[in-house]
Specification:
heterodimer, A: alpha+beta, D-Maltodextrin-Binding Protein, domain 2, 4 domains, 16 helices, 16 strands, rod-shaped, B: alpha/beta, Rossmann fold, Arc Repressor Mutant, subunit A, 5-stranded parallel beta sheet
């Protein structure tokens, strides 16, 4: 595994590979791969053995079943289990006493996948509940080589560099930086490592074999590597002491777990791959949801339109009924006015007639000498005549002439029943109809008045009757039509029956007593007859006979 | 003196009309309803009735119809508070002398009463004539009746005899009997009598 400078990596490891080739007597090829290339190579199993940092080795062990065989023993540590850490390098004059001080500082690192250069310290911060991506003033990944970071710190372009342990010490040794200008902060004491570290320490490079690699080959390779001495060319070039059996890497597991819980090291590819079907399913679901939404919206629009038209129709019917009711009451008012005028005229006419008769009777009794009296009485008669003339004019003025037209009785009766539907439902009455299709010449609105008056009287008469019944029968007899309304109400006393068609005769508390006289008048205007009789058992039957056209 | 009847359901109107008619020299009898009138008056006798049209139970025009159908000789004058042409025509058709609006003027009524007096006399006479004729006709045998009809058609004796299939001599005897029973002396008289009866 190599981040950059493949040549440097190759020259460091080639002697070791050469030693292996010699010992195994076969051709061993060394390939330097970037982390991404390495991921692919391991997945596609194009390599047999890998040399990686322990964190990578451990994550491969979990994801691809590699087995860690050996750990490299470094030069600067006596224990390969505590060989790598992170060092925070800064200028001598900068004071950093705690991890929280880092918040005000500009930080640089090489790569987010660099083990000592980033991941170890990121794990350290995660443990403290901090997030390196949020909790620095600024964090930049500037890439390799590592000494570039040191010069950035020296020049003041950055405040802190996260680097693997020993990078600063090696640079000082090679006199690349001055020993006095830079320092490592937040150091943790370590007995094993000879360099300063700002974090806990982890094992050095790991040598692993892939799951598919033959175990006999692996054994031979291990034997060969274990035989390398610190003084051998392989070890000197490889900058290591020797190889040892795999050390305890439980701390690495802990680090890995810690890092994986943090989004900044999330394995986006694998997450993407596992999540892809869910994401697709999610999208399909959302899409279906959207389709459903569209469909529901369309249905709502359609239903709304239906409802609107229904409401419109309903309103129209209601308006029509309302207009009809209105017209009915108007007609009734006119008729009532006319009938009242007529009734009053009649009532006044009677006493006036009495006065006139009496006066004239007196005149006839006068002797020839009483001419003065005769004159006065004649004048009294003239006054009576004048009063009567006024009454007559008034009556004629209020009289509403009927407008005859060709009309269907059935329809008039139907309209009447519709008009009175509310009253029927109030007493839970369903009129029994026996109808025929008969047309006559008449005034529909006046005939409706007749029907309404008769039915209303019937309803009043049936008040208090447990099961009210109303029969309406229509029958054509010769050139006449007979319409009968039969109820099962209280009926009428013989006296009341005799005066049924007289004005101001009523048995009702609030009645004017004009309903039936109006009916009679209207029916007579239609050249018909109206009569009433008590039924044998109970109730009243009203019979109307009208000439048919 | 000719009997005068008044029928009106209003007591006051009835009284005042009686007062006026008494002033004119009549002695009217008042009734408050058609029923009261019918139950106490012999309608086969001559008389004059002044009827109010608007009355409960049986109104004026119904009473008029009743009188007409019973061939009463009573002459009728109709009075109405608010009459119309249709009512007037109907009343006249049913045989009323006149149809007047209430209140009627005394002088006008006096004239009508004069007319009515004559009318009721005529009616009585007509009834008597009709009854007499009916009595005479009743005495005829069916054969004589037959013969009379044929003769009135203007047929000759021998034609009638041939039609009835009897001897001419027999027919002449029948004919003689008919003239005798009908109390006429010639055919013209018989024809006049029978013709008048069709008016009844």
């Amino acid at each position: 595994m190599a981040f950059a400078h493949t040549e440097a990596v190759l020259s460091r490891w080639q002697p070791t590979i050469n030693r292996l080739s010699t010992d195994l007597d076969t051709q061993v090829q060394l390939i330097a791969l970037t982390p991404t290339e390495l991921d692919q190579a391991v997945e596609q199993k194009t390599v047999d053995f890998i040399i990686t940092n322990v964190l990578t080795a451990v994550s491969y062990k979990r994801e691809h079943g590699t087995s860690s065989l050996l750990t490299l023993v470094p030069l600067m540590s006596s224990n390969p289990a505590f060989a790598v850490g992170s060092a925070l390098v800064t200028r001598k004059e900068l004071e950093v006493n705690s991890i929280t001080d880092l918040r005000q500082l500009k930080v640089v690192s090489t790569d987010r996948k660099a083990f000592g250069g980033f991941q170890i310290f990121a794990g350290e911060m995660a443990q403290q509940g901090l997030n390196p991506f949020d909790d620095f003033k600024q964090l930049d990944f500037v890439g390799f080589p590592q000494k570039k970071l040191l010069s950035l710190i020296e020049s003041g372009d950055a405040d802190i560099a996260i680097l693997p342990t020993c990078v600063l010490e090696n640079a000082i040794k090679r006199q690349e930086v001055s020993a006095t200008s830079l320092k490592v902060v937040l150091t943790k004491p370590s007995a094993e490592l000879h360099c300063q570290s700002s974090s806990t320490l982890y094992p050095y490079y790991s040598f692993s074999k892939l799951g598919k690699t033959d175990h006999q080959l692996a054994t031979k390779v291990i034997k060969s590597l274990l035989s390398i001495q610190a003084t051998d060319a392989a070890a000197i070039n490889g900058q290591y002491d020797s190889w040892s059996a795999t050390v305890n890497d439980s701390s690495v597991f802990k680090l890995l777990r810690q890092l994986q819980q943090w989004p900044f090291v999330t394995n986006w590819t694998s997450i993407f791959k596992t999540a892809l079907p869910w994401v697709i399913a999610g999208f399909i679901f959302l899409f279906l949801g959207y389709l459903h939404h569209l469909r529901v919206k369309k249905l709502v629009v359609l239903r709304t339109r239906d409802l609107k038209s229904e409401i419109y129709q309903h309103k129209k019917t209601q308006d029509a009924l309302f207009a009809q009711t209105e017209q009915f009451y108007k007609a009734q008012r006119v008729l009532l006015t006319g009938e009242m005028a007529s009734g009053i005229a009649h009532e006044l006419n009677q006493p006036l007639a009495g006065i006139r008769y009496l006066t004239q009777g007196c005149i006839y009794r006068l002797s020839a000498e009483q001419s003065e009296l005769k004159e006065a009485m004649t004048k009294a008669i003239q006054q009576v005549d004048r009063a009567q003339e006024t009454i007559k004019r008034f009556r004629n003025f209020c009289h509403q002439p009927s407008v005859m037209s060709y009309c269907d009785i059935n329809m008039i009766l139907d309209d009447t029943l519709t008009l009175m539907a509310a009253e029927f439902s109030r007493v839970k009455l369903n009129p029994q109809l026996t109808l025929e299709n008969i047309s006559i010449s008449g005034d529909a609105s006046l005939l409706q008045q007749v029907f309404v008056n008769i039915i209303r009287n019937a309803l009043d008469a049936m008040e208090g009757v447990a099961t009210p019944q109303l029969f309406v029968t229509m029958e054509s007899i010769g050139d006449q039509v007979k319409i009968e309304f039969t109820d099962n109400g209280k009926g009428l006393s013989p006296q009341a029956l005799g005066r049924l068609f007289f004005p101001f005769e009523t048995s009702k508390k609030n009645g004017l007593g004009l309903g039936m006289i109006i009916c009679k008048r209207i029916i007579e205007e239609h050249h018909g007859e109206i009569s009433a009789r008590n039924n044998l058992d109970m109730g009243l039957t009203l019979t109307i006979i009208l000439p048919q056209e | 003196m000719c009997r005068l009847y008044l029928v009106d359901d209003d007591q006051d109107v009835l009284d005042s009309l009686t007062w006026m008619l008494t002033g004119l020299g009549y002695e009217p009898l008042g009734f408050l309803s058609a029923d009261a009138f019918l139950s106490s008056v012999d309608i086969t006798q001559a008389g004059i009735a002044i009827l109010d049209v608007q009355m409960p139970v049986m109104d004026g025009s119904a009473l008029l119809s009743h009188l007409t159908t019973h061939q009463s000789p009573i002459a009728v004058i109709m009075l109405s508070g608010h009459g119309n042409i249709a009512m007037a025509v109907q009343a006249i058709q049913k045989g009323a002398i006149d149809f007047l609006e209430k209140p009627v003027d005394g002088d006008k009524l006096l004239l009508l009463l004069g007319k009515a007096k004559i009318q009721t006399k005529l009616n009585t006479q007509r009834n008597l004539d009709r009854e007499a004729l009916e009595t005479k006709l009743a005495t005829l045998t069916p054969r004589e009746h037959e013969v009379m009809e044929k003769i009135l058609e203007g047929k000759l004796n021998k034609v009638v005899a041939a039609e009835l299939n009897v001897a001419q001599r027999t027919l002449e005897l029948h004919r003689q009997k008919v003239m005798q029973k009908m109390q006429v002396s010639n055919i013209a008289e018989l024809a006049y009598l029978m013709g008048k009866s069709s008016e009844y």
